[in-house]
Structure formats: C-alpha cells, structure tokens
Amino acid sequence: MNFDWADPILTCADARALEARLFGGNEEREWDAMERAGAGVAAAVQEDFKEIGGFPAAGRILVLLGKGHNAGDALLAAAVILEKYPAASADVIFVFGERTLRPLAARAWRRLLETAPQRVRARSVAPGASPAPVGASERDSYDLCLDGIFGFQFHPPIDAATAAVLRAVNGHPAIRLRAAVDLPSGLGEQSCATAFQADFTYATGSVKMPLLEKRSRETAGRLRYVDLGFFDPTHVGSPLAGDPSVPSRASALPTDLVLKSSILAPLARLRAPLSDKRTYGHLFVIGGSRSYPGAVLMCVRAALRSGAGLVTAFVPETLVPAFAAGTPEAIWVGWPETPEGGLALDGLPLVRERLPRATALVMGCGLGSEPETHTLAGEIVRLAEVPLVLDADALQPSILAVARGKRVICLPHAGEFKRLAGGREAGVAELRVVAHEIGAIIVLKGPVTRISDGERVLHSFFGGPVLARGGSGDLLAGLTGGLLAQAPADELAAACRGVAWHGLAADLLARDRGQVAVQVTQLLDYLPAALREPAR
Question: pTM (2 decimals)?
C-alpha cells in the first residue's frame, strides 16, 4: 500500500539521525527548515486560536526561549504573527540569557527585532533568580505563550531557575493559549516532573514518539503535525528537494505513522463524467431501536454526505415514516420489531434477499442490547460477503467471532475496546495486538484516534473536544461506511479517510462556532470545506 498520506513517527534518536542526514551541518538548509517551521507553527496557532474567538488584533505573546532550534522556531513564529498584526506585541524571555543563543536562534531573534522593533520587550532569567519576568498581574496577561526552551534533544534534569519559570507559566492565571514547539519543554526520551503544560503541541518536521506515550497526555495537550516535507524529497520547499539521500517513506516506514490531510485528495478531484449512482457504491445501514432512534439516523445522514451512490437503511418499522420524511435520499426498509422495539430475528429475510446489491454494510448504531437483536446481528455478519463496519452495540465478542476471516472495520471507544480486548486497556501496543487477534481493522476513537490493521498504527490529530458529544461516533460510522462502499477493496484507506475527514470537519466546526454551543450534526455541514483544506 502507498502511504504517501501518512508520515513516520520517530523516536528522538531517529529524529536526530534524520535531521543530521537532511542537513549535514549545512546552515542554510537548517535556516530554510527553521523558517518554514516558524511559519507553519504560526499558521497552525492562528487556526487553532479561532476555537476561542481568534487571535486579537492587539494580542500579546509570551515567548520562552532556550538556546537552539526550538528557540529559533518560536521566534520566527512570533515574527510571522507580529507582522500580520501591527498592534500585537511580544515579551521574550531568555531562560539562559540572550548570549547563549546558538547562531540560527540568534538570527531568528534579529528577524523578530527587524519585524517589530518597537513591539518586542526582552528579559533574561539570571541563574538562581526568581521568575519575576513572568508576572501574574492584569498588565502581564497574554493571549499566547510559545514554548521554545527545549527541543527533542532534551535530557533531564532541569535547573532550578528554568523549573521556576515553567511552574510560573503553568500557574499563570491569564494565558489564553499555551503552545509548545515540537515537544513541551521537560518532555523527551526521559521527562521531568516539571514540564510545560501545553494546550497544543506543534510537532515540526516529524512527530516524536514521546508525544504519544501515556505520560505525555496531560502535558502535550492537543497534537498538531507541521509537515516540512522531510519524508518527501519532491515536496516543494523541502530542504533537500530532489536529493536521493533523503530517506523515502518506503525505506523508513515504521509501525507508527501520523495521518495527513492529503489522504482526502482523491475525494476533492473531479468525478468521471460518465458515472452514475451505481458507480459510487451501495451502502447498507442496519441499526436503530425505539430506545435509540437518533443514532441510526445520524449514521445514515453521514453516509449520504460521504459520496456513496445509494444508501439503504434497515430500521424498526415504526421509525420509517418520520425518517423517510426527513431524509428522503435514503432507501428506508422497515424491520419487524421485538416487543421492546429492537430489530427482531424474523426480519432476517429482508436483508438476505437484498445483500447481493450492497458493496458495504454498517451495523450497530442504536442497535440496543437485546439478546435477540445480537443474535440477528451475528446472522447478518455470517451472511455478508461485503466488507463490514461494526460500531457501538454490534461490537460484541460473539459477533466478532462470527466475523473472523471477513473484511471488518471496528469503531470502538475506549470502553468498547476494553470489552473486545478481554479487559486490556486501550494502549497503542494493545491496539495492535487486538487488531491482529480478531483479524479486523480497529479504529480506536479518542483525543488521538488510532487506526490499526494489526501491523501498523496510524494516528490522527484531527478533531478535538468538540467531538466529545453523543452521536459523533455514529457520524463517523456512516462516513466510513459510505467511503468503504465506494472503494470496498481498501478497508484501511477507507477507515483512515473517514477518521481524517470527520476530524477535519470537526476542527472547522469548532473554529467557526466554538467548542461549546454546537450540535454534533452541524459537523456534516463542514464536510465539503474539509475537502478543500490544503494538505498539511
């Protein structure tokens, strides 16, 4: 499979080796990468700031600086923001003193001073001094804090003065958004008890493995990947464009990768002019109950937005009139109900006779917990010869036992995963093992959604707390099922594409409407715009 829509996640040692190979001590190559990292962080920060109303015209930035490349990246990011906002200003704190800056960081400092000479205030922290430069008064409130003290080459311990600065910043009552460049200071192959507490971490050039470890969850905040083209020598602006010595994705493909928005590129292209609805697949959706009618409706609505040519939904017969009136684009098939309002076993012929028409099938949303309905679900899985997406109430060990040997995508959250994994926690290693054991692709939903085929794990940084709502998983199920119906031969790509599209639309929703006063179904209105997002 071609993974040009995902980049390797590296250990810190591998990242050091990669950058040594990329730059070879060439200062201009390093400066070019630093400029692009600074611009990339600045652009990403401004986008994420939209979730809390956008960066203000007269915004104030606090920049924490160490000695090396992270300091340079942070300075250049600040310069880009100050250039865009002529009324904005920055306080720069040299944690080890201005004279300790390495040549490229010093060059970045000069760039910032040239960009906004009257709007930058610099201070240094003397060895053993208290962190007085980081005030807590109203005068010292900040909209943005950029952490550029330590990079991925950090090794503990942290000196007392630096630790005091970090504690002061972490406890500061008036910083709206805290952003770490590459890694939060204090986090690395080995971490310290005192580390920068980020709202967002912007991994530059490559994603380093410490960001994905359990110990980093509260420190790193939400993760973003600033792609600098390190894994693609043909990338425009790559430090070594066209240089055959740059490691290719094929030669450096580890078992952990980060998803990029370029996975959505095929969906943004023109469709074939001679196509019709049958060209784009026929998805079957089976689910719903009187207790949970909305789940299957959200799944169907998302499937209809996925680009699938046909969507047939099998739901309890009492739900059909309202569903068909509100969503007429789907084909609604009423299913006999149990006394409790679930799907009854005697409705099996309804799907059996129609299955040859399907190219993919989604089951589970709102299905309920009745034993009869679960028996029915197992029988449907047994009959199906098309690829399956199983979600929610269909994620039962008994049903997955029947699915063994079939092409299946499972969409559990952490609790459902634990049920499938026999009580094991939802860690990265466990995800890979369980996906291999049950012979399915598992999409483990969470703050970082992870997809595994049992061999590799792909990590998605798209989306955020706006998805922490009932129904977001039902939308993902419908979207993934619709994509699978259009390309049934590639379950892994459909799963990854569904996760990325769902997450990017959620990002756009949060940036436009905020994180709080929204409904999860509003995400559907941002799917078209997500396809037009630039690759990153």
Answer: 0.94
